[in-house]
Design a protein that fits this description.
The structure is a homodimer. Chain A is α/β, with parallel strands linked by helices. Chain A has two domains: 269 residues, L-amino peptidase D-ALA esterase/amidase, CATH 3.60.70.12; 118 residues, Roll (Ubiquitin-like (UB roll)), CATH 3.10.20. Helix content of chain A is 32%, strand content 27%. At the A-B interface, helix 8, helix 9, strand 17 and helix 11 of A face helix 8, helix 9, strand 17 and helix 11 of B.
């Protein structure tokens, strides 16, 4: 059993964090929140970040990655906008990112490299700096713990609902919170940093340990989800630790305890992203067991999670397990197809590589569920893994055939 | 200029080849051709094959790959069925493949390992051997050069049109033919052997050279197309050379001449497959130039060709070049996004990593074409490549959400 419980709250629930959001006119629809500011009152706030591995990384990624490194894992604020990715915007785009951070640092009275920036939205269009600068003073003025709740909406693009979760746990009589928000509905793919997520905690964690714990949690959550196989230019996970709970996390038991909560939080947000995948109607968990090693388990899970043929079969509740065995077959993993078992939930579709003689209507009923699990047992060894994906529907095409315009 | 011309004809046009097809009841729809036989009259027929790399390779792949090797590149016939892939059918499936070959060899009076077998269709359902055996005698009886034309229809599954091409060339006063047919509309992905294709020629080519030339041609054609990123369990390209034209192909100029024709034929068939991609409305050529090396050129082209976001943007004629730069970015290739140019046909969308300031209506008009080219210049080096892909539409979902049932 986990020592962490889900609780009501928002990004401002951990002690020390305030936030605010505004409609700055970056998105076409006026009145839509598209600019947010998150700030930590604690001078000694630690920060960790995991960034996209995309070689065409956007200006805010290039900027924040470099500043966070220069500040040795200390940062107190992030300015985030939606509606424009500030990607493929060249030297001018980097200038906009830096000017945004500089302006926010001045207003917040912190060193410039303690302000990070994130952007999400359309690629290749200049980000209008003046709309950000015009709105920063009001944002700073409205900073409050409860206003931080609105950040979950300010970062959305094609998402259909805001994604937020808060966990709490007691440690030596003191209460510690971990809170997070995320966005991302397309361009989701299980490689390093697949969307935007912001996490706050009032635990005290030194920067190197914070970075290590974040990397591990991201690997067990955001790097195990797939909507469409595209890895974005912008995606970033940032974690800020104010330390104001008075609970210090160091190597050993405390590290395991905090890491568990952080991973649970990240998995919870990751599953919300998949559930909100562009056009998705179903949340599909892919469990692979019996793999020869962890890398092979991942290869199989990833291939099945990304296969358009598997994802369309799930959309149609078609128990076409041949497509699953086929995807495993081209994954690059070592296994013997004649040993593989495949179940949807508890129902066997394939046993030892052959049709399990299942009842078609019963299989369809399992696949009709809004949340379902595909279980693949390779019977090769003892390694296992879990991935999350969604079905592939008409709505994905509708959303993406005309996103830009 | 190529020395090869497209001519009217079919798989039976090269001297020595006869074929026939029948409706054997393997497909649900009666009267639909689903069984075919191709036979070479020449005892010294050479044969070459390229097979799927999928680890869950189907019984006919396992069988034919092994027999072709055992016979050191000699084979005279292939039995092919559609409607059932004989994949994930275990030991029984291998028995069906072997029994099919044995029965055909007896009727045709050739050694058993001179008969290959291929299957395509649904995975995981036993292939009814008796329907094949019942129809083989009549098939053998109806073998003729002109009846070979019907094989192009007998191998189809979700394809909407038969794919066939014939090239001819003169060599020292003698006329040589290369003819081919192909099928494949889903599970198409640029890795070794991505569909079914059968090629006949009346050139005389020794087995080792024939295999080398086929591998090179497949690599420049069928391995450079993408419909949905899935690599099938069954896919196979077989090439038979009867030698009856009297023109012998050996290393040097003749090899280059014949290889050129073979590659042109394979590219022609590969493009037909993409044009008939499940739900596809457009044939998209991806040209990558200026890559640091050939592997990087391929990485970029493959990532762009497979990106669901790029493919849906093309479906919607949306000049969203940011998705192209993004796909290149996660391809693993080394390049500097700030140097990249992107054109649709001749129109610049992105110049040196930035928006080229194009006219939106003009860009949409270019993207509205049924055949269009995306040109990416990385400005990193001198390597280049070409891939072919299609757009990603509603119809792909419709076809695949209910293929099995």
């Amino acid at each position: 059993m986990s020592e962490w419980q889900k609780v009501e709250g928002h990004l401002g629930s951990p002690l020390g964090f305030r936030g605010a959001a505004a409609a700055a006119g970056i998105k076409k629809a006026a009145e839509t929140l598209d600019l947010g500011l998150l700030f930590s009152d604690a001078e000694e706030t630690s920060a960790a970040g995991v960034f996209t591995t995309n070689r065409a990384a956007a200006a805010p990624v290039v900027y924040s990655r470099s500043e966070l490194r220069a500040a040795r894992g200390h940062a107190r604020a992030v300015v985030v906008n939606s509606g424009n990715a500030n990607a493929a915007t060249g030297r001018a785009g980097l200038g906009v990112a830096a000017a945004t951070a500089r302006a926010a640092a001045k207003i917040l009275d912190v060193p410039r490299n303690h302000v990070l920036v994130c952007s999400t939205g359309v690629i290749g269009v200049p980000l209008p700096l003046e709309r950000i600068l015009d709105n920063l003073p009001a944002l700073a003025k409205h900073l409050s713990p409860s206003n931080a709740a609105s950040l979950a909406r300010a970062i959305l693009t094609t998402d259909t609902f805001p994604k937020s979760a808060v966990l709490a746990s007691e440690r030596r009589g003191r209460r510690v919170h971990v809170a997070g928000i995320a966005k991302g509905a397309g361009m989701i793919h299980p490689r390093m940093a697949t969307m935007l997520a912001f996490i706050t905690t009032d635990a005290a964690v030194a920067p190197p340990l914070l970075q290590k714990l974040l990397a591990a949690s991201v690997n067990a959550s955001f790097n195990r989800i797939s909507v469409d196989g595209d890895t974005s230019t912008n995606d970033t996970v940032l974690l800020f630790a104010s330390g104001l709970s008075g609970v210090r996390v160091t190597a050993g038991a405390a590290e395991r305890w905090f890491g568990e909560g952080l991973t649970e939080l990240c998995q919870s947000l990751a599953k919300m992203i998949v559930r909100d995948g562009e056009g998705a109607h179903k949340l599909v968990t892919i469990e692979v067991t019996g793999a020869a090693d962890a890398a092979d388990a991942d290869r199989v899970a990833r291939a099945v999670a990304n296969s358009p043929l598997v994802k369309t079969a799930i959309a149609g509740s078609d128990p076409n397990w041949g497509r699953i065995i086929c995807a495993a077959g081209y994954s690059g993993a070592r296994f013997d197809a004649a040993k593989m078992d495949i179940r949807v939930n508890e129902l066997f579709l394939c046993r030892r590589g052959l049709d399990a003689g299942f009842d078609d209507a019963a299989a369809r009923a399992e696949l009709d569920r809004k949340e379902l699990t595909l279980r693949l047992d390779l019977h090769q060894g003892k390694a296992s893994t879990v991935f999350w994906t969604c079905d592939f529907t008409h709505d994905y095409i509708d959303i993406n055939a005309s996103y830009r315009t």
